[in-house]
Each structure stands twice: as C-alpha cells, then as structure tokens.
Specification:
The complex is a heterodimer of chains A (275) and B (488). Chain A has 14 helices and 8 strands. Chain A has helices at residues 9-13, 16-28, 44-48, 52-66, 77-85, 87-93, 97-107, 113-120, 140-145, 151-157, 180-183, 185-201, 212-225, 234-239; strands spanning 2-5, 32-34, 72-74, 110-112, 133-136, 163-165, 206-209, 230-233. In chain A, the strands form 2 sheets. A 4-stranded parallel beta sheet of chain A has the order 2-1-3-4, with helices on both faces. A 4-stranded parallel beta sheet of chain A has the order 6-5-7-8, sandwiched between helices. In chain A, helix 4 crosses helix 7. Chain A starts with a strand and ends in a 36-residue tail after the last helix. In chain B, 48% of the residues lie in helices and 11% in strands. Chain B has helices spanning 22-30, 33-55, 60-76, 78-91, 102-115, 127-131, 134-140, 150-157, 174-184, 196-213, 239-245, 266-277, 310-314, 330-334, 336-341, 352-363, 380-384, 391-408, 415-427, 430-441, 460-463, 476-484; strands at 95-99, 120-123, 144-147, 216-219, 223-225, 230-235, 249-255, 259-260, 285-290, 300-306, 451-452, 468-469. In chain B, a hairpin with a 4-residue loop joins strand 5 and strand 6 (230-235). In chain B, helix 3 (60-76) crosses helix 12, helix 9 (174-184) runs parallel beside helix 10 (196-213) and helix 16 (352-363) runs parallel beside helix 18 (391-408). Classes of the chains: A alpha/beta (275), B alpha/beta (488). At the A-B interface, helix 1, helix 2, helix 3, helix 4 and helix 9 of A face helix 1, helix 2, helix 15, helix 17 and helix 18 of B.
Chain lengths: 275, 488
C-alpha cells in the first residue's frame, strides 16, 4: 500500500528517529511510504491554547498537502486526534464549511500508527524483536480521543524477546498537556512525579508510548532524576528486528541503566506518598 | 454596558470567583502534603466504588445517552418547562419567585425568613445556596443559618470553604474534624474520639435541637418535574429530610437548569446520579414533595428560581452543555489536576473539571480567565460524566473565547499571543519552517551530556523539573532528503 507519512513537527525537529522507525517499519512490512515535504504542523498547540485563528492556515495546509493521499499515518495519538476531532471545528468556527468538509474527508483516511497496523493492515504481529523489560504508558489522547484500546498492547505482546510489565495507574495523565506543562507547571510536575513513581515501580528499562510529546515529558523528568529508565517511542520498538537491531539513534545511547531504586523520590516538592 | 436593543442575560455573582489565578492558588495547595494525602485517599476510594457499581449495569452507556438527550431537549425548551413548573407548583399551594442573580435570590430568601418570624434557619446541603452566599446574606439580616449536612457542618464550623461538590470537607481527615468539633461545637463531649461513628453521633446530638426548634428550612434541589410540580432531593444522611419536613416554612432555591420535563425522566437520573456520585446503587434518602400538603409537613412553600448567569450560558452553542450537569462530582474524583490541588484552588463553589467550564460561563470568561487552562485535557472527566458533557471540548472552546475576547478588547498581545502567531506564521510556510528548524538546532549549544538542563523563560517552567531534549544533528526531513532526494 502507498502510505503518506505525517511525521509531526515535534518528531521532525527533535525526535527524527521516531520518523525513521515509522518508515523502516512500514517498508519492512512491504508498503511504500511517501513523505510530502510541504507538511509542517497539525496546529494542535494553537487550538488547545485558544488560538484557533492562528491554527486555521495550518489546518488548510494539512488538508492541501494530504488531500491526494489514500492513507495518512502519524506516529502520534495526539496529532491524529487533533486532525480527526479539531480540524473541521477550526474551519467551522470561521464559517468555512467547504474546508471543514475537506478536513473531515482527510481525517477519515488518517490513522495513528497502531490503528493503521491493526485496523487497516490487519496485523497484531509485525515481526519485531526487542529484548528489553518494557512498560507501556497509554497516552490520554490515544486512549480517550482515538480509543485505541488494547491495540498497542497487542502489538507489544507479539514483539519477540520483549518483557512487557504492566504500568500501575496507567491511564492517568502524565501531566504534559501541551502548554499546560508551562502555564500550570507546578501541577504538571506533581502529576509527572506520580507517573514517574509508577514507572519506577515496574522496574522496567524502557517506558514506551505512542506520543513523542508525552515521552519527552516523562523522559525529561526521568533524566533529571538520573533514573536510568529510557523513553522509546512505540514505533522504534516495532521497527526493531533481530537482524537490524533497534533503529539507530542520532544521539549516543546512555550506558546500561543502573538498577532503579526500590522506592522513588521524584522530587523534594512533589514526592509525597499517596495516602 | 451599552444597550444594544437586545435583553442582556445577567452575569452570575456570588461565590464563583477566586481571589487569585488558578496556578497561584494551586502552587500553595500542592505544598500542603496533608491535603494531598487526604485528597488522594478520598478520591481513589470513591473512584473504585463508582467503577464497581457502574460496571454492574450492562446498559450504562445507553443510560448516559438517555441522560444527555433528556437534558439537551430540556435546555432547548427551558422557558416552556419553567413556566409549566411554576404553574404546577402554584396550583398545589406553593409560591414561585424568579431571581435574576444572587443578590435578588438572597433578598427574597431573607425577606421570606424574616416574614416567617425566624432568627434561625436549618439548611439542606445545597450548592445553589453556597453559590449565592446565602448564609452570609442571612447573617447580615440577623438570621443564623445552620448547615445540617455533616460535611457542610464541618466546613461551617471550621469557618472554611467547601472544596468538593459532594464531599465539601474532602480536604479534612478524621483527626482534623475531631479538632474542629472540640473547638467549635460547645456542647460536645471532651472525650470525643476520631472514630467516624463517634463524630457522626456528636453531630447528630448537636443538630437535633435545631431540627426540633427551627421555623424555617432552606434547601436546594436535585430535580424538579415540570409536569407535576414535584421537587426532589437525594441524600445519604436523612438530615435533609428532617429540614424538608419539620419546619413550618420551606424555602427552596433552585438553579433554572434543574428542571426535568416528566416524572418518567427521573427513572434515568435516579440510576445515573447515585452510582456516579457516592458509588452506591441507590442513595439512602430520596425526598419528593409537591406544593403544600395540608396538615403534613411545611404549610408554607416557596420556590426561588435562580438564573445567576445560566441564561447567558444557555446562549452559547458549545458551552451550554455545562448546564446539563447533575452535580454528581464523578469528574472531580477522576481528575488528575483536582486530585492534586483540591477544590479551593478553583476559587468557585464549583471546582474540578465541571467548575472549570461552568464558573467562567456563569461569570463571563474574563472573570475566571485562568480556569479554562486548569486542565491537561486528558479527557478522564468526559468518560465518567453521566450526562456525557464533553468537558475537554468546552475547555478548548472557552480558551478560544478568552483569546478572542481579549483581542476584541484591544488588549496588547502578550508574549504568548506573539509566540502563537509567530509559530503559526512559521508553520504556514515550508521555507520558514525549515529555517526555524535550523534555528532550533542552535539549541544543541545548550546541551550537556545529551540533555538541556536550563532554558530561558517561559520554558524555564519546563526545565525547573525536567530536562529538555537536545535538538538532533539532522532533522527527519533532512534525513529523508538525503535518502530519497528532493522529490515531493
């Protein structure tokens, strides 16, 4: 199949390995990946911060760039959610019904990576190999906007060598929330502290998710703690094979993680035990 | 305000605004480790109870659909149902009063209580009367209001504010409650322990004399049935029923959105509310009354219909769904923000996710401008709402309304507006986007050991507790071009 990749502005700029992994996974599965180079950003940050007028040109651009594609995939539940649930709304807010209809048509062919693999391509096993202890954080927008359900877990359970550990309170938000992390930084940090405690309790080496944004948040906190737990996007795990190994990263890998502490003390301010 | 030839719905006044923005109040709440323990324990307990009893019903989703549909249909013809309710209540011997805002409602209730010769009133737990600040208004007229709901009593005795819709004293634990009782009750046994049964018994003894002596009871209402004029209060303790039946005069304050068209509609809501609220299959006490029954219960009945910003809320196509709320508080109990900061940070008697969409609409969004942003948009509230209020969608809409109103008021754009406009300008052009990516790579200079530990404001809020990633040597699109050439 011919699949157009919307890599997301975040992955393009900061996490290119996620895009490369998505390409290598889909090509390994026998599909042809296009990367329309006129793409930029879905506009979710503007919409969720109240700047819908500023989001309008981005919605129009997304529609124009991907209108001719039969299938669009993106390695992000959050951006896919924005395309599906916000693009037409932004157009209607300014009374552009024609753009809203076009946006709905593109949205109907737009899929988050796990959705594409399971719903469109009919796969639960992508033949990946990843010999690590991994815990999965279901991001809020993949869980409650896209309703991906257990699709990512089905894919992960079929990865050879992977030791999947259940994350306690998995469905609770990590506290990212886009500009929420800056506007309500203290509350966001308190939520992050509890998420990190759950991650550390699993004694996993790797925490994975379908969104680079949430992983950047969780990973930023874990890195500050020097917790020794890595964040790896789901696409990178699914792209790894016994032959090729994990997709190459542009940055040097951190050394083997030390044993995680038995009990986490995420930060002095926000590290109280729950009652 | 300029008169534009259209009637203007009044803005809500009363306990709907905080003294400080949410992030400031939240910071203080987060520093209170006792508060976070109390909240964490209480919300996780009630979450588990709710999930268990909701899981018992195979038709839960259909019940939610029914609840949503009934509410939407009612709001579409709210004027008609309110007039029908007024007619039925009047036919059955009650008197109906219309209050445009909190000040009018307070004046009506104070006047009625004074006319009944009361210097004391006993109260059923009621958010509407908390919203309008009735207790303070009555006190100013020399009338003492006694809260009879146990949690409201704890809040009142502690000279505190409610922090939860259902459990107003959720921020207090047993030891704190014992301390408040010993300090404030006067007639309490000094050997009182913090055993819940002992605390409840102390409250029971304290309240009993009030129940038997008060001439006037004041209540809110959970539901009002337009076709019969019947009012309904659901509760757990039975103290509400005492207030509704013992005094000679009963005054009920009701937000206009509480009306339901028919008796049969109650069948849906009496299934949805207790399971969502206390996590019970059915609440212990459901009281219903219709006007006045000669020789039985209050012989004077007054119903005060309160607008206080509700008509203005109804005018907004997206935001009006907030009026569907049945005050179950399920959204508070699942909200990761509420669980960590508690209710006081929201500044209004309506805290949590529903408060973040309701309060700014009742007051006008500029008066509660920080509340629509007090959410990570995680969506947990929408999933548990028994009437399917899409709270995240209303939050996003309110943020847009806030930005648009600020713009119309010709306020100078803040740094945020400038950065949003700049980001949009950059992203709307492939060339500018690539140039910005090159600029971002300059961030590599900030990196130490593969991470950035400090960024300038406003991103310093991020690096206060989190490292930031160092931009990679090559963006994805550069890699793609290297591999595939420049073809589109």
């Amino acid at each position: 199949m011919r699949i157009a990749l919307f890599v997301t502005c975040l992955a393009d700029t900061l996490f290119p390995d996620v895009g490369r992994a998505t390409v290598s996974l889909l090509e390994r599965l026998g599909h042809q990946v296009d990367f329309p180079q006129a793409q930029t950003c879905c506009g979710q940050m503007q919409v969720n911060t109240g700047y819908q007028r500023e989001a309008l040109p981005l919605v129009r651009r997304f529609v124009e760039v991907f209108e001719s594609s039969d299938l669009v995939v993106m390695p992000s539940g959050s951006c896919a959610g924005s395309v599906r649930h916000q693009h037409a709304m932004v157009a209607r807010r300014v009374g552009d019904e024609r753009l809203a209809r076009r946006a709905e048509a593109v949205a109907a062919r737009t899929f988050e990576l796990c959705e594409l693999l399971t719903d469109v391509l009919g796969l639960d096993d992508v033949g990946a190999y990843y010999p690590h202890r991994v815990t999965y954080h279901p991001t809020c927008h993949s869980l409650r906007v896209l309703r991906v359900g257990d699709k990512p877990l089905r894919l992960l359970r079929n990865v050879a060598g992977l030791d999947l550990v259940e994350l306690p309170d998995a469905d609770v938000c990590c506290g990212f929330g886009g500009t929420f992390a800056v506007k309500n930084a203290d509350t966001s940090t308190a939520m992050l502290a509890d998420k990190m405690r759950s991650v550390l309790a699993t004694r996993a080496e790797v925490v994975t998710a379908g969104d680079s944004s949430c992983l950047m948040h969780i990973g930023g906190g874990l890195s500050r703690l020097r917790a020794g737990v890595r964040t790896v996007h789901l696409a990178q795990i699914l792209a790894s094979t016994q032959a090729a190994g994990p997709t190459r990263t542009a940055r040097p890998e951190p050394p083997e993680p030390p044993e995680p502490p038995a009990r986490a003390e995420p930060s002095a301010r926000a590290g109280e035990e729950p009652g | 305000m300029t008169f534009l030839g259209m009637p203007t719905a009044p803005r809500g006044v009363g306990h709907l605004r905080g003294a400080e923005p949410f992030p400031v109040a939240a910071r203080r709440a987060l520093a209170d480790s006792q508060l976070r323990r109390n909240l964490g324990k209480a919300t996780s307990t009630i979450r588990a109870k709710r999930a268990a009893v909701v899981g018992e019903l195979p038709d839960w989703e259909q019940l939610r659909d029914a609840g949503e549909a009934i509410k939407a249909q009612t709001m579409a013809q709210l004027d008609r149902y309110l007039e029908q309710l007024e007619a039925r209540v009047t036919e059955r011997g009650g008197t109906v009063h219309w209050a445009r805002d909190a000040a009018e409602a307070n004046a009506i209730v104070a006047g009625l209580a004074a006319a009944a010769g009361a210097t004391e009133v006993i109260k059923v737990k009621s958010l509407a009367t908390d919203e309008i600040g009735l207790n303070d208004a009555l006190a100013a007229e020399g009338i003492a209001a006694y809260e009879t709901d146990l949690a409201e009593l704890i809040v009142q005795l502690g000279q505190d504010r409610p922090s939860h819709i259902l459990v107003p004293a959720i921020h207090r634990n047993r030891a704190e409650i014992r301390e408040i009782f010993l300090r404030e009750m006067g007639d309490v046994d000094p050997a009182l322990t913090d055993d819940p049964a002992a605390l409840a018994e102390a409250a029971r003894l304290h309240l009993r004399r009030k129940f038997l002596s008060a001439k006037v009871g004041v209540s809110g209402v959970n539901f009002a049935i337009a076709e019969t004029g019947t009012l309904c209060v659901v509760e757990s303790e039975g103290n509400g029923r005492m207030c509704l039946t013992l005094p000679q005069t009963l005054i009920t304050v009701m937000g206009i959105e509480k009306v339901l068209p028919t008796w049969a509609d109650l069948g849906v809501f009496l299934q949805l509310l207790p399971r969502s609220s206390t996590g019970e299959r059915m609440n212990p006490y459901t009281s219903m009354w219709t006007g006045v029954t000669p020789g039985d219960g209050p012989q004077q009945f007054h119903l005060v219909l309160l607008d206080n910003g509700r008509t203005a809320t109804l005018a907004d196509r997206t935001g009006r769904a907030a009026l569907h709320c049945i005050r179950c508080s399920a959204c508070l109990n699942v909200c990761p923000v509420y669980e960590r900061v508690g209710g006081h940070a929201y500044g209004s008697v309506y805290p949590g996710p529903i408060g973040a969409v309701l309060s700014p609409q009742l007051t006008g969004v500029q008066d509660n401008a920080s509340l629509p942003y007090a959410s990570s948009l995680c969506g947990a509230c929408y999933d548990v709402c028994p009437v399917k209020i899409d709270i995240p969608a209303i939050l996003v809409d309110l943020r847009a309304r806030h930005v648009e109103e600020s713009r119309r008021a010709h306020r100078l754009p803040g740094p945020e507006a400038v950065s949003m406009a700049a980001a949009s300008w950059v992203m709307a052009s492939g060339g500018r986007y690539r140039a910005a990516q090159r600029a971002a790579r300059a961030g590599r200079l900030l990196g130490r050991g593969g991470k950035i530990r400090r960024l300038p404001p406003p991103l310093s809020a991020w690096t206060a507790a989190r490292d930031a990633p160092v931009p990679p040597a090559m963006t994805f699109r550069q890699w793609w071009q290297q591999e595939h050439g420049d073809q589109p």
